[in-house]
Design goal:
Layout: H1 7-13, E1 19-23, H2 48-55, H3 61-77, H4 81-105, H5 116-123, E2 128-131, H6 137-142, E3 157-159, E4 162-164, E5 174-176, E6 179-180, E7 183-185, E8 191-194, H7 200-209, E9 216-217, H8 223-231, H9 234-244, E10 247-253, H10 262-269, E11 272-280, H11 285-301, E12 307-312
Parallel strand pairs: 1-2, 1-10, 2-5, 10-11, 11-12
Antiparallel strand pairs: 3-4, 4-8, 6-9, 7-8
Helix pairs in contact: 3-4, 4-7, 9-10, 10-11
Organism: Bradyrhizobium betae
Protein name: DUF4917 family protein
Length: 320
């Protein structure tokens, strides 16, 4: 098994071909805590509202809020006004808990982030960007050069603190495969992004707590749970399908090839790419061996001929 190569070597090997980049949690770890949002929501472990997540085997706030609201409709039909009021208050409490969690784990402003220009230099080596993250780090990086990276909302207008909707016809080379905290779906399935720099966190908090709207993002869970969520949104499905259309070289940074994202690797190995470059954080022989086994497994399942090479992520100097 060959040792991981340096990023410069990977760039030299792919000179003149299309390069696509997919980033995972490791891209944001320096500034964003990718612990479960539920763990940072401030809910007591023994309260019924918290136990509902365990009952329904999910960490998706939207799923539980919808369950509470549906239950309130049922109680209303059985003339139980006190129960309707109680369930409504619990749904409101859960929205506030989500706001609390977002504020607890995410930087408030882009100017708190050091190294944005270094990160921009890194992503500028790629023609297409895919992210599995729902934080704003990649969003803030790409805003350092908005003429190079587009998210597909460019043909939409600004209305009520939102821009959009997203349209496949708009120029786009940035794809939020698992959604984002700044993305909100309309009743018709269209998606708009919340704007409000520099206080985007505050703007999103008001949208959740005051307007009762929830961001479009794929919460932690199994690969099948995530895939179900993706297929339920035309926007997410569009971003997901774009992976399979990539050709040339495909790079993965900040991800452990975890099986909870098996759906993503199935797309990569079924894509038109001819080589996968997989970044490894502080590579050791044991770590590379484990990752090699996982990628081989995905490759066999997809019946793919795509070869892969490991790259030392430290050599990319993403955040300095």
């Amino acid at each position: 098994m060959p040792n991981p190569i340096l990023f410069e070597e990977a760039l030299s090997a792919t000179e003149g071909v299309n390069r696509s980049l997919l980033v995972g949690n490791g891209f944001s770890y320096k500034y964003f805590s990718y612990t479960n949002l539920l763990d940072n929501a401030g809910l007591e472990t023994n309260e019924p509202l918290r136990s509902l997540f365990d009952t329904f085997d999910t960490v998706d706030f939207e799923a539980i809020i919808k369950t509470l609201e549906d239950a309130a409709l049922v109680e209303g039909k059985y003339n139980k006004p006190s129960r309707v009021l109680k369930l409504g208050k619990e749904a409101g409490k859960l929205r506030r808990a989500l706001v609390h969690a977002v504020r607890a784990v995410h930087p408030d402003f882009h100017f708190e982030i050091e190294g944005l220009n270094l990160a921009l230099q890194f992503i500028s080596n790629f023609s297409s960007l895919f992210t599995l993250n729902y934080d704003f780090l990649l969003h803030w990086v790409r805003l350092q050069d908005p003429e190079r990276f587009w998210d597909g909302f460019g043909l939409g207008g600004n209305n009520g603190g939102f821009r959009g909707p997203f349209t496949p016809e708009a120029w786009c080379n940035v794809y939020n495969v698992h959604g984002g905290l700044h993305l909100f779906a309309e009743a018709d399935g269209s998606v708009r992004k919340r704007i409000g720099e520099p206080a985007i966190i505050e703007a999103i908090g008001k949208t959740i707590s005051e307007d009762g709207r929830l961001p479009l993002y794929v919460a932690e869970g199994s690969s099948s749970q995530k895939l179900s969520r993706i297929f339920g949104s035309p926007y997410l499905r569009h971003c997901f399908d774009k992976i399979k259309k990539c050709d040339g070289a495909f790079f993965v940074f900040g991800h452990s090839a975890n099986r909870s994202d098996e759906h993503v690797y199935d797309q990569i190995f079924k894509s038109a790419a001819d080589h996968l470059y997989f970044f490894v954080h502080e590579p050791t022989q044991a770590k590379v061996a484990l990752l090699n086994a996982e990628l081989e497994r995905y490759k066999v399942i997809a019946e793919s001929e795509i070869e892969f090479t490991f790259v030392d992520s430290g050599s990319a100097n993403v955040w300095g």
